[in-house]
Design goal:
heterodimer; A: alpha+beta; Dna Ligase, domain 1; D-amino Acid Aminotransferase, Chain A, domain 1; Rossmann fold; four-stranded antiparallel beta sheet; 13 helices; 19 strands; elongated; B: 296 residues; 14 strands
Chain lengths: 401, 296
């Protein structure tokens, strides 16, 4: 699960990580009020930041034509105008796809004077099965680009989960980031806070980009997490009620939310051949084989190991809500589950939804003969595939005709 | 021979009284697997299906029955504890079927297992099957949730992260009259007990395994690491398939581990590594068995 920048900053602040002062709002009036408070406290520049689950917001374009989902303002009136231009409009960034995301919340925050931008992240290193802290002097940039062009500018520190991050490790990273004097200890404290946020919240990724050296109120340099991204481990959400409450359903595709109600794992793609498969690996492989034979998969859909008739019907209804779908491929390897139960579910679903699109079914496994007979006896124009490859070729051909 | 388990391996089941654990224990018993004990805290002294004794702890079950391997079916919040109980008791093999264990729990489990003799397979995996010589491979050792009847006793090793894709490969082999030595599902999570490479090394050392099918998927770099080792050390033909060539970056494809992030873990990179290592590549998942058989 992903959360918004303002939510990530709330969590980080709880672990002692310095973030810019600010608040979230959903009206231009409230935006003005927050700005007035911040200006009264001495801020000279105010950032107005669209809250959507996407990077590249600053360079995004609203469908209204308005440029930029992040703006800097000097007055509360300007904040009001910018907020008005953003709220209720759809922002398209390089990560959102053409459909974009509706901006319904803004983060209004003091924009500090930035001396230098750094990068900091905590994530899982799969090869060592341990968390790592990753940092770079090249902040504010796309870290994948840094990794590709100047990998020597990225430092990594593996954390032993038995003891957690040690202060010496945090100091080591601070030094590698070029911090000097008081900033070494400050950087170490901030780093430990970021690591603790990641570990205790069960985050799969915490990314601070940029982590900034700014001019503090006393004129001395200080560190601050100016932007923050946090992704959570879905499997661990059950033990974090406060984070569950941060879920924003507006950021999730409606069909994916609908599918999750039936314990179906559905991800919409941009092709026109829908697939319904049992098992995640087989579902991925089914998408691949459709593409191999020249078709384009419309979705990933895993009905799980013990799919019921109700789930199959729900799966068909979800697939059919995608207007791009021109054909359906059902690929079931019924190891333990009875193929005839699945076949009965398919027949019921086709009748209930009045399916008009070509449907190719490949059944294999337990009680497969009875399953095939059920499909054949249904009187429905269901095309049977003898193997995965045969079924994929048939559905691709049907859709092209 | 086989790897990890043999027909006479004595198995205990942690979470034997839950509906999922009970159903698959029945299927393992029907397959002829030596299920000698169950463990459910608080139900010690009872019998499962009127024949398998249930114990309160793994240590008691091992002491009384001589079990050396365990299948875990307990719910996700309790799975890490169940694994470490098996490790503490000194089991040779723990196979964790449970899906949905928090990643940090597994990070801690792996750390705690360092230096211990127990091998962990999974979590979030279909388990391990060493087929038997009877009808529909009856008499083998089935740990987990794989359908027993699709197997056939023989000489091909199969290793995969995914359940149904393993069944697909196994069934393709069996339909061509080719049997399997052992089939291992290592699981779809980002942190697991046993990697592709670990299993490949065991197959390579097993005198009766003559060929290997390795099925991978997007995410991580475990397939690349296995490929590199195979190129240098493996004496046996290996055929492979990588699922997820069409998966968009940044989206988790069902399995928590199946995600392309930061430009890493793409199908293209894995397929390139397979090619460089001389691993036969099945162009489609329908050709996994044929690809290997052509190499043998």
């Amino acid at each position: 699960m992903n959360i918004h920048e303002y939510q990530a900053k709330q969590l980080l602040a709880q672990y002692g990580v310095a973030v810019p002062e600010g608040d979230v709002c959903d009206t231009p009036e409230a935006a003005r009020k927050i700005a007035e408070t911040l200006l009264a406290k001495g801020a000279t520049l105010i950032a107005v930041k669209s809250q959507i689950h996407s990077g590249g917001r600053g360079k995004g374009t609203f469908k209204s034509g308005y440029q930029g989902g992040v703006k800097l303002c000097k007055t509360a009136d300007d904040v009001y105008e910018k907020a008005k231009a953003m709220l209720g409009n759809v922002l398209v960034t390089k990560q959102t796809g053409a459909e974009g995301r509706l901006v319904s919340k803004l983060l209004i925050a003091a924009a500090p004077h930035i001396d230098k931008e750094l990068y900091l992240a905590v994530l899982l290193d799969r090869s060592s099965s341990r968390p790592i802290v990753m940092a770079s002097t090249e902040g504010g940039m796309d870290i994948e680009e840094v990794a590709a062009k100047t990998p020597e500018k990225i430092v990594k520190e593996t954390i032993d989960p038995a003891v957690g991050i040690m202060p010496y490790q945090a100091r080591k990273i601070s030094a590698a980031l070029g911090l000097k004097g008081d900033l070494i200890a400050q950087g170490a404290k901030l780093l430990m806070g970021v690591y603790k946020t990641s570990w205790e919240c069960d985050a799969s990724l915490v990314e601070i980009n940029p982590l900034c050296i700014i001019q503090g109120a006393d004129g001395k340099p200080t560190l601050m997490a100016v932007d923050a991204k946090l992704s959570l481990d879905d499997n661990a959400l059950y033990r974090h009620q406060n984070i569950q409450a941060m879920r924003d359903l507006n950021e999730e595709a409606p069909l994916e939310i609908e599918a999750s109600k039936y314990s179906l794992n559905y991800i919409k793609l941009d092709g026109n051949i829908a697939c319904l498969v049992n098992g995640a690996g087989l579902a991925m492989a089914t998408m691949d084989i459709i593409q191999h034979f020249g078709g384009r998969p419309a979705n990933f859909l895993d009905v799980g190991g013990g799919a019921s008739k109700e789930q199959v019907t729900a799966a068909f209804k979800i697939i059919l809500q995608d207007p791009h779908v021109k054909g359906i491929l059902v690929n079931i390897f019924g190891g333990i589950m009875d193929c005839n139960v699945i076949a009965t579910g398919i027949v019921a679903a086709v009748k209930e939804t009045g399916l008009k699109l070509p449907l190719v079914v490949r059944l294999e496994g337990n009680n497969v003969d009875a399953g095939k007979k059920t499909l054949a006896d249904s009187g429905l124009p269901i095309i049977s595939g003898t193997s995965m490859s045969d079924a994929a070729q048939r559905v691709v051909k049907e859709v092209k005709n | 021979m086989s790897i990890l388990v043999k027909s006479d391996t004595k198995l205990l089941v942690q979470g034997i009284t839950g509906s999922f654990g009970a159903r698959h224990t029945q299927l393992s018993l029907a397959y002829g697997t030596q299920v000698v004990a169950g463990v459910t805290p608080g139900k010690g002294g009872q019998l499962f299906e009127n024949k398998v004794p249930i114990f309160d702890t793994v240590a008691q079950a091992m002491k009384q029955t001589g079990a050396t391997a365990s299948a875990i079916f307990v719910p996700p919040p309790f799975a890490a504890d169940a694994i470490l109980e098996g490790v503490d008791a000194g089991l040779d093999l723990v196979v964790c079927i449970t899906e949905g264990i928090p990643v940090n729990d597994m990070v801690k489990v792996k750390r705690a297992m360092e230096g211990k003799k127990t091998r962990l397979i999974g979590p979030n995996c279909p388990g391990v099957v060493t087929p038997g010589g009877g009808k529909d491979s009856y008499g083998g050792c089935r740990i987990g949730i794989a359908p027993g009847y699709i197997h056939k006793k023989g000489k091909i090793g199969v290793v995969s992260r995914s359940g149904t894709l393993t069944y697909e490969a196994v069934w393709q082999l069996t339909c061509r009259g080719v049997g399997q030595s052992t089939c291992v599902g290592i699981g779809g999570d980002p942190v697991n007990g046993t990697s592709h490479l670990d299993v490949i090394k065991m197959f390579n050392a097993d005198p009766e395994t003559e060929g290997i099918i390795m099925i991978g998927e997007i995410g991580g770099s475990a397939e690349e690491e296995a490929a590199e080792w195979i190129q240098k050390n493996c004496k046996k033909p290996v055929a492979g398939f990588i699922a997820g060539a069409t998966a968009p970056p940044g989206r988790r494809m069902g399995h928590a581990g199946a995600i392309v992030s930061g430009g890493k873990g793409t199908a293209a990179a894995k397929i390139a590594a397979f090619k460089a290592a001389g691993i036969g590549i099945a162009a489609t998942p329908s050709e996994m068995a044929d690809t290997l058989l052509k190499m043998m």
